[in-house]
Design brief:
The protein has three helices and seven strands; from the N terminus they run βββββααββα. By secondary structure, it is of the alpha+beta class. A hairpin with a 2-residue loop joins β3 and β4. The protein is elongated, with a radius of gyration of 16 Å.
């Protein structure tokens, strides 16, 4: 399963979620964006799709892969995280609500920005 990196429900439906080194944004059109951070988002809830392992299980699998396959196992473990898909429900300070579907990279950055 590959993440859409888009708004999949609610306000801004179909708009693209963009990631940069500094921010995560929803592109609303014509170079207009909504930055997703603790100033614009009142509340959020995340759900991982298609994952059967918890974080500690995944860490142990990475360690085992590294032990069995060495450096190559670690590399495969890092790339495996990119296939994880998250759906995040957002409630904005202005009252709008959206659900976004994003990959692990965007999820990780966004949860840091909203913490």
């Amino acid at each position: 399963m590959v993440a859409k990196n888009k708004v999949v429900d609610g306000s801004y439906l179909g708009k693209i979620v963009r990631y940069s080194s500094r921010q995560v944004s929803i592109i609303t059109g014509n170079d207009e964006t909504i930055d997703l951070n603790d100033s614009s988002v009142k509340e959020y809830e995340a759900l991982e799709l298609g994952s059967k392992n918890n974080a500690s299980d995944e860490f142990m699998l990475d360690v085992a892969g590294g032990a069995l396959l060495g450096f190559i196992g670690i590399i495969f473990g890092l790339f495996a995280n990119k296939k994880r898909v998250f759906v995040i429900s957002l409630e904005f300070n202005d009252g709008n609500k959206s659900k976004i579907e994003v990959n692990y990279k965007i999820y990780k950055k966004l949860t840091r920005l909203l913490a």
